[in-house]
Design goal:
alpha+beta, N-terminal domain of TfIIb, 3-stranded antiparallel β-sheet
Length: 43
């Protein structure tokens, strides 16, 4: 996995795509890549 797909909640990179969003296999958090981009812009 690349850093762009790391979970925005727990920062683990054990993620997988599920349709139009990503899911973290470690913590169960799900997000869209556009939502992650918005989070990164605010940081």
């Amino acid at each position: 996995m690349n850093a762009a797909s790391a979970c925005p909640q727990c920062s683990m990179e054990n993620t997988y795509p599920d349709g139009a969003r990503y899911v973290c296999a470690d913590c169960g958090h799900a997000w869209s890549e556009s939502a992650r981009s918005d989070i990164l812009k605010k940081a």
